[in-house]
TrEMBL record:
Coiled coil: none annotated. Belongs to the isochorismate synthase family. This is Isochorismate synthase MenF. HAMAP family: MenF (MF_01935). Its cofactor is Mg(2+). Mg(2+) binds at residues 312, 447. It comes from Oceanobacillus halophilus. NCBIfam families: isochor_syn. It catalyses: chorismate = isochorismate. Residues 200-451 form the Chorismate-utilising enzyme C-terminal domain. Keywords: Isomerase, Magnesium, Menaquinone biosynthesis, Metal-binding.
């Protein structure tokens, strides 16, 4: 059993109660302790028994994990989702009592969340549990950073709370979370697979190329959906475990909301912030992996020199460069992309580094970046209008920023691709591709087929 200082918890609650003024409803108290190493997936599984919604996150290097359980606070900024969330986050931090002696990113008060791809799109029923923008501060948070492990408890303390009672309740939940439960391994069987309107989708790709030829846009990213029905309810822990085992160089994430779970393995970083240091990524342009090392290298070489893919990629580079200029100094972007290898495919990749100017938040960067031409297109408004009108689906949180931020100016957001919305015995999978002037509908269709594989293969498909 890990050692949490329960006496300390009680004392801090007591202190908080003394600080609460008459007109204050409650105080948010956050207590972080360094603990012995504990497996992130075990922790996620442990929370299954307490019926609180769970969030799982790991970075693409797999040396940083966050697992959030329950929610002590939620930020739902429906109107102006970036400025609204930024303001709410500032307000929370200004009033919270934070006991965190560690400088480690992702400890203490951390908000985890995401948002819809396009707030102007009429939401469909399948996404009803996923709000336009939703960030939560979990009640319990496990943070693993390389060899170190931390446990944070966030508590809403009210004036009339009894410290001993609250501390005992926290201890009871901790016992459940840190008990070693057997990790479920489930082999799902797909009973029905419904590819949504593939012929219409190819026609839409054709229409997009025509509009591009008429000069109405330069790049438009079009996505499609596959619906699955399984033989039983999908176990999220089992799906996460398979993603962790099979998808290198990818962020593995899961956002549970009630009975639904938005889950995936995305290779695409939107922005990472460590104090003033920023790292963004241009990822666009795709080819399959080769069957032999030699073939693989050859395909990669061709991808690096393929004009159509370079064009797809370059729109992203130009836009990200421009979007970051206002908020950053020391912007550095290499002239040529390199190959970013994944299990099922390879991409063109250009890293972007910069220094964030003082006074700006990670939300300012996200607001300016999203959607990049990796998921929207060029120009942004024209391509979004095309997507809104012609794509026969609601992207929901697919293709949108998801991630976390802490109170010490650290955070990281990815773009939620290679993802699925799992709803009990059913799931919707999403994949898209960048359409440019010389796109061939059939080839783009094949490209999306490979992009479905990371999720399809862990959900019982081939
Ligand atoms: C839209 C997706 O991926 C994007 C499109 C790519 C492309 O068309 O080459 C490559 C990576 C991403 O920028 C997706 O995976 O759904
Ligand atoms: Mg492409």
């Amino acid at each position: 059993m890990i050692e949490i200082k329960h006496r300390q918890v009680e004392e801090l609650i007591e202190k908080a109660i003394q600080k609460i003024s008459k007109d204050e409803e409650y105080r948010l108290v956050s207590i972080t302790n360094k603990i012995e190493n504990f497996d992130a997936l075990q922790f996620f599984e442990g929370a299954k028994h307490i019926e609180k919604s769970r969030t799982f996150w790991t970075n693409s290097d797999k040396d940083f994990y966050l697992v959030g359980i329950g929610q002590v606070y939620e930020i739902l900024a429906e109107e102006s989702r970036f400025t609204g969330t930024k303001k709410a986050w500032r307000d929370i931090l200004s009033k919270a009592l934070i006991y965190n002696p560690y400088e480690s990113p992702g400890t203490g008060i951390v908000a985890l969340g995401g948002m819809a791809f396009d707030p102007k799109k009429e939401p469909s029923a399948i996404w009803s549990n996923y709000k336009q923008s939703h960030f939560t501060i979990p009640e319990f948070l496990l943070s693993v950073n390389k060899d170190d492990c931390y446990f944070t408890v966030n508590i809403q303390v009210r004036k009339d709370d009894l410290p001993t009672q609250l501390a005992n309740e926290i201890e009871r939940v901790e016992r459940i979370l840190f008990a070693h439960s057997e990790l479920e391994i489930q082999d799902l069987t797909i009973q029905f697979k419904n590819e949504i309107a593939p012929f219409e989708w190819k026609n839409t790709v054709k229409k997009a190329t025509e509009e591009i030829c008429q000069g109405k846009a330069e790049k438009i990213v079009l996505a499609r959906e596959i619906r699955l029905k399984f033989n039983e309810r999908a176990s999220i822990t089992s799906v996460l475990r398979k993603l962790l085992e099979t998808q290198p160089n990818s962020y593995i994430f899961a956002f549970e909301k009630g009975n639904d779970c938005f889950i995936g393995a995305t290779p695409e970083r939107l922005v990472k912030r460590e104090k003033e240091h920023l790292l963004s990524t241009c990822l666009a342009g795709t080819a399959p992996r080769g069957k032999t090392a030699e073939e693989d290298k050859q395909i990669g070489k061709e991808l690096l020199h393929d004009p159509k893919n370079r064009k797809e990629h370059d729109f992203v580079v130009q836009m990200i460069k421009q979007a970051m200029e206002d908020y950053c100094t020391d912007l550095e972007v290499p002239n040529n992309p390199v190959i970013y290898p994944l299990r099922n495919l390879q991409h063109l990749y250009t890293p972007v580094t910069a220094t964030l100017k003082q006074g700006y938040s990670i939300f300012d960067i996200i607001e300016n970046l999203h959607p990049t031409p990796a998921l929207g297109g060029t120009p942004t408004e024209e391509s979004l209008a095309f997507i809104r009108e012609h794509e026969h689906m609601d992207r929901g949180w697919y293709g949108a920023p998801i991630g976390w931020l802490d109170s010490n100016q650290n955070g990281e957001f990815a773009v939620a691709i290679r993802s699925a919305l799992v709803q009990g015995e059913e799931a919707s999978l999403f994949a898209g591709c960048g359409v440019v002037k010389d796109s061939d509908p059939e080839a783009e269709y094949e490209e999306t087929n490979i992009k479905f594989l990371p999720m399809l293969s862990v959900l019982g498909g081939q």
